């Protein structure tokens, strides 16, 4: 991303190839009891992650003579390996880039972050390195 001066890295779980057409596939494993929570709060992150792979790989695969679909798939497995859901996600470049710009500005402190509900932060694996969590919890 030259305009934003950031480097995007991605490592998709799998690619489905049919002739010269390619689809990104992302795999997530979760327990059945947390499916509702995941669908509501984690699904947007997984969708953005999948869209990031599409953004990165579209020109790369294009140069190799393949066409990457603008639709990626998120597979949800339970802990025994059974498929619970397959969620399609659609990549729209303009919308993706608007979100990316906002994320970069927030990380640079140029735009305010909107803190999520506290219960989400308490379960978040990134809270020890998160500006919001650290600032809210170091004031006490
Ligand atoms: S700890 Fe930070 S990254 Fe995690 S959910 Fe809260 S605000 Fe988001």
Architecture overview:
The structure is a single chain. With 140 residues, this protein is an alpha/beta fold. It has two domains: 14-108, Trna Endonuclease, Chain: A, domain 1; 113-140, no CATH class. The protein is built from four helices and five strands; from the N terminus they run E-E-H-E-E-E-H-H-H. It has helices at 35-63, 93-107, 118-122, 131-138, and strands at 14-18, 21-29, 67-68, 71-77, 83-90. Strands 1, 2, 3, 4 and 5 form a five-stranded mixed β-sheet that branches. The longest helix is centred in the middle third of the chain and has 29 residues, at 35-63. 9% of the residues are buried. Bound molecules: iron/sulfur cluster. Iron/sulfur cluster (SF4) is lined by residues 115-116, 120-121, 124, 126-127, 130, 132-133.
């Amino acid at each position: 991303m030259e305009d934003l001066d950031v480097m995007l890295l991605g490592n998709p779980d799998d690619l489905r190839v049919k002739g010269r057409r390619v689809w990104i596939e992302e795999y997530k494993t979760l327990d059945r009891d947390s499916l509702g929570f995941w669908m509501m709060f984690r699904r947007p992150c997984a969708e953005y992650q999948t869209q990031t792979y599409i953004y990165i790989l579209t020109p790369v695969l294009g140069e190799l003579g393949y066409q990457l679909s603008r639709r990626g798939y998120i597979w949800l497995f339970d802990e025994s390996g059974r498929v619970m859901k397959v969620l399609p996600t659609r990549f729209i470049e303009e919308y993706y880039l608007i979100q990316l710009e906002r994320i970069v500005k927030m990380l640079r402190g140029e735009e305010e972050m909107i803190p999520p509900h506290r219960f989400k932060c308490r379960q978040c694996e990134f809270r020890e390195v998160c500006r919001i969590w650290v600032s809210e919890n170091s004031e006490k």
